[in-house]
Task: inverse folding
């Protein structure tokens, strides 16, 4: 920095020449220097004040923005930092084939207590017992006044209950947000859905895990974040399911049955459109399983999948189909039906005396045990076992339910000729209604196996061929005649060509032997019979029809009317229009009543 001298020589000399005082020049320069210094200090001070003011403004803006954000954010309970794995609570929805919700999630709260934070633990215990009558006030009081620092009070509470607890005003009662599984249709399709419960739990979330049915089978898939919440779509139709359950429940009550089951399956794809088991339960409040006694006494027991029963005369169609396919008989072949039929110490009888002979067609139409046993003798035990094995009658079904492996059919350890004969008419082998549905589908769909599935199929695969298309066409005709003039005449539904077969089997005693007055009544039906789209199996446990002078337990009086009513209501919902049935011999069209 260049400093200007206070007494410049040139100016001093000039001033002396003019007679002026040189000291004046020095004082003037000093004044100017001081003014420059003051201006510089003032500028520096003003800059510092401006910077400080900007800092204060920024601080106040930051504090104000933070306070506004806190005011706009919902208050949450303090959370303890944990090193454990995060709980993934979200679970995908389950839909029916039309996209309607069968299972979804609902945001709710859990109620827990921290006794050290409580002001009036005894009063809180008393008031909680008033809000939740199922809680024991004395037990709560003991927990709240003891040494416990944390306890769950209720795992799920409603918004109304949450408000009532709020009004208690107890700081030690806290709420944890969580998702719960909700089944908006109640008990509808309960055995298929199964149910869910809480797994790992924290105060701010809970893990929802499947406990039965498709909820457990597809538990990992439903919880997988990689699916981006994509729903699981089942083959069930909610409307059809409701119809089937309503009719089945009414039929069970009307026929005084202990239980009932129904399976409605697509005959070509194996898709299960409806599956019902009664009694049922509400998966929103799943009951505890039985710890002793007969498992079938529990409402959790899925009779359609887990229940294995001797299905009686519904098996006769398999013997006839195999004999037709092997070329051993044709529909007009006459079969010996003179009874009783004796094999060693065993006697085989028919429900009625059908005379000395019946055609193969009438063996099925009139349901002759003796005639079917003679046909089975011609087939032979080895070929019979091979055929039933192809139909899946010796292994659990592959349906996507966690309970399916428990429904393994029961078969004899040995297979002598008498077993060949009794199995042909449905005694000696026990299978589930779902096994029967899949086997009947193969009998009428052209002769190929289907795999029962609870998932909606976009490209169903064609299964193994078990009988020829010609044999399948003959079987369809036989089943239609059973409904027209045989043991299932109550199965006629105006406008729909129904075919089917009845089966009535005595129930076995746990100690051995059979009950004389307890049966399993089954109706295996297909519709329309000339080109079957669907198979329907209806099974009643211990039915008895009491409208007459004597109790009647056969399937023709019990299971068949229930099956016919299901078809009458469900067929239009399935998109099947009533049709006029052709009568070739008259060359006219008429409606069958």
Result:
């Amino acid at each position: 920095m260049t400093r200007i001298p206070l007494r410049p020589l040139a100016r001093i000399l000039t001033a002396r020449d003019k007679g002026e005082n040189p000291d004046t020049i020095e004082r003037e320069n000093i004044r100017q220097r001081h003014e420059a210094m003051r201006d510089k200090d003032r500028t520096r001070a003003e800059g510092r004040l401006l910077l400080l003011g900007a800092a204060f403004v920024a601080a106040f803006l930051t504090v104000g923005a933070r306070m506004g954000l806190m005011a706009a954010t919902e208050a949450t309970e303090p959370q303890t930092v944990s090193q454990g794995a995060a709980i993934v609570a979200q679970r995908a929805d389950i839909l029916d084939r039309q996209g309607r919700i069968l299972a979804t999630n609902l945001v709710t709260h859990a109620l827990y207590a921290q006794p050290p934070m409580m002001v009036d633990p005894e009063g809180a215990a008393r008031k909680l017992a008033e809000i939740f009558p199922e809680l024991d006030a004395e037990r709560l009081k003991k927990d709240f006044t003891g040494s416990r620092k944390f306890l769950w009070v209720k795992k799920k509470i409603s918004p109304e209950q949450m408000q009532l607890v709020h009004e208690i005003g107890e700081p030690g009662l806290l709420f944890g947000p969580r998702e719960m599984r909700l089944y908006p249709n109640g008990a509808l399709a309960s055995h298929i859905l199964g149910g869910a419960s809480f797994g790992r739990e924290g105060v701010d979330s809970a893990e929802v895990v499947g406990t039965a049915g498709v909820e457990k089978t597809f538990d990992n898939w439903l919880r997988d974040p990689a699916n981006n919440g994509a729903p699981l779509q089942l083959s069930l139709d909610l409307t059809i399911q409701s119809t089937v359950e309503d009719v089945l429940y009414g039929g069970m009550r009307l026929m005084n049955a202990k239980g009932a089951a129904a399976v409605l399956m697509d005959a070509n794809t194996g898709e299960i459109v409806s599956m019902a088991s009664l009694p049922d339960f509400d998966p929103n409040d799943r009951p505890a399983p039985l710890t002793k006694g007969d498992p079938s006494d529990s409402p959790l027991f899925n009779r359609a999948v887990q229940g294995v029963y001797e299905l009686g005369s519904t098996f006769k169609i398999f013997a006839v189909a195999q004999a037709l396919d092997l070329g051993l008989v044709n529909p007009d072949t006459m079969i010996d039906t003179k009874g009783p039929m004796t094999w060693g110490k065993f006697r085989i009888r028919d429900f009625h005396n059908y005379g000395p002979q019946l055609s193969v067609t009438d063996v099925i139409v009139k349901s002759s045990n003796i005639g079917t046993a003679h046909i089975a003798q011609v087939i032979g035990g080895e070929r019979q076992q091979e055929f039933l094995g192809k139909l899946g009658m010796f292994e659990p079904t592959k349906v996507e339910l966690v309970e399916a492996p428990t429904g393994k059919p029961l078969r004899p350890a040995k297979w002598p000729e008498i077993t060949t004969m009794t199995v042909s008419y449905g005694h000696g082998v026990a299978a589930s209604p779902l096994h029967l549905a899949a086997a009947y589908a193969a009998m009428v769909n052209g002769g190929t196996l289907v795999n029962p599935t609870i998932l909606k199929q976009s490209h169903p695969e064609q299964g193994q061929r078990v009988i020829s298309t010609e044999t399948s066409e003959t079987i369809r005709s036989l089943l239609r005649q059973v409904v027209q003039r045989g043991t299932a005449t109550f199965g006629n539904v105006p406008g729909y060509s129904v075919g089917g077969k009845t089966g009535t089997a005595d129930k076995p005693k746990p100690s051995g032997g059979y009950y004389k007055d307890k049966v399993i009544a089954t109706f295996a039906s297909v519709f329309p019979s000339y080109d079957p789209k669907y198979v329907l199996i209806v099974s009643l446990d211990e039915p008895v029809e009491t409208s007459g002078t004597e109790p009647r337990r056969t399937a023709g009086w019990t299971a068949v009317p229930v099956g016919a009513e299901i078809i009458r209501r469900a067929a239009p919902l399935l998109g099947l229009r009533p049709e006029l049935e052709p009568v070739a011999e008259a060359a006219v069209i008429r409606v069958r009543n």
About this structure: Residues 584-593 have pLDDT under 50 and may be disordered. The chain is about 35% helix and 20% strand. The first strand starts at residue 94 and ends at 95. The CA atoms of residues 82 and 281 lie 39 Å apart.
